[in-house]
Write a structure and sequence with these properties.
It contains 15 helices and no strands. The chain is mainly α. The protein folds into two domains: 2-162, no CATH class; 177-341, no CATH class. Helix 8 packs across helix 10 (210-230). The longest helix is centred in the middle third of the chain and has 41 residues, at 136-176. The chain is globular.
């Protein structure tokens, strides 16, 4: 069996399924649902502003349609991304589109989690039978699609309900205890963003929106802006940009060597979370995946703004700026100076590899 699994490139491990597959799923979700939401929002807002300019209104209408097209293929995009991460052969990868559609449709609000679990199983079965017969063109897609389809019908609704229940519980708890849950959600999701797993996929799978989503945005932003500011001395403007609007995951190698460098951004998350939930009542009423993106391409902030639907007041904008940028920058500036002063952080500890 071990020899067969090795020959088929089927590696049952946390890294393959919990890191590679989940991270790929988040990219598929970003390239469909999230970008579709952004394009659609641009079209809707632009159309409202250009009501008297016929050609611009037509262009905005097209943007709305394109956005809807992109949103509609979220399930297939996630499953294909997972298949690519699992290094599936072409026939399995292409067949995963149907599996993703079925799992996402049957999973309801918890569709992303259903897609993740079901696509992994269907793709691995597809890989197992790939090129084992002379009628591979029929057998491989048949096995992949049928396995995925049956699992979608039998289990996706329950997976979706479980994910939705847990997400709703988190949102409810945050509404009831905004201070404590603001800290918990911000720290947990922020840490997940920096780890080689996908905070965006976690938020999407749980449907993390509302006040809890606002805390998640605060926590993720604190990690990215925090590390960007904390390591500015070593990495300069390039590091500021690559971490601040790219990903704090770039520091993972340094964190493994010296975990203490992670403390300032984590503290910034713990401070920013309750400021978001208690002081500014910051909510993520846009798409859930944006809750776990932080300042990556400013997707988290765009998600919050999208959820406002043009009803934001000055305090809302101030809260978003303070929570996303000012709090993590100030906290990590102060802690970074203090940590260096007492020798907890030394020269080169935060240096990114060229």
């Amino acid at each position: 069996m071990k020899a067969f699994l090795k020959r088929k490139n089927i590696t049952i491990s946390w890294k393959r399924y919990g890191i590679d597959a989940m991270s790929a799923m988040a990219q598929g979700l970003f390239a469909s649902l999230l970008i579709g939401t952004i394009i659609k929002t641009i079209g809707e807002q632009g159309g409202n502003a250009a009501a008297n300019i016929e050609w611009l209104k037509q262009l905005c209408d097209w943007f709305v349609k394109i956005g809807v097209f992109a949103q509609s293929v979220a399930g297939p995009a996630m499953a294909i991304s997972i298949a690519v991460a699992l290094q599936a052969p072409p026939l399995v990868t292409f067949s995963a589109a149907a599996v993703g559609y079925a799992a996402n449709a049957e999973g309801g609000a918890g569709g992303p989690l259903a897609v993740l679990l079901i696509a992994i199983i269907a793709v691995e079965f597809g890989k197992a039978v790939s090129k084992e017969t002379k009628i591979d063109i029929l057998v491989t897609p048949f096995v992949t699609v049928v396995i995925g389809g049956l699992l979608s019908i039998w289990t996706a609704p329950y997976i979706g309900k479980g994910a939705t229940w847990f997400g709703n519980l988190t949102k409810w708890a945050t509404e009831q205890q905004p201070f404590i849950m603001g800290i918990v959600v911000a720290v947990v999701i922020g840490v997940a963003l920096t780890l080689p797993i996908s905070s965006a996929a976690i938020c999407a799978a749980l449907g993390l929106t509302g006040l809890a989503g606002g805390a998640a945005v605060a926590g993720c932003s604190a990690q990215m802006i925090g590390f960007a500011v904390l390591s500015f001395h070593e990495n300069g403007v390039g590091g500021l940009v690559s971490q601040g609007i790219g990903t704090s995951m770039l520091q993972m190698g340094n964190i493994v060597k010296k975990p203490i460098i992670w403390l300032p951004p984590i503290i910034a998350s713990a401070i920013g979370g309750p400021i978001a939930t208690c002081l500014f009542k910051l909510r993520m009423d846009g798409t859930p995946i944006a809750s776990g993106m932080g300042t990556c391409g400013f997707v988290g902030q765009i998600g919050v703004i999208t959820g406002w639907n043009g009803t934001a007041e000055a305090v809302d904008w101030a809260g978003l700026i303070v929570v996303s940028f000012l709090v993590p920058a100030l906290v990590c500036l102060i802690l970074g100076y203090s940590f260096r002063k007492i020798g907890l952080i030394k020269e080169g500890d935060l240096k990114l590899k060229d």
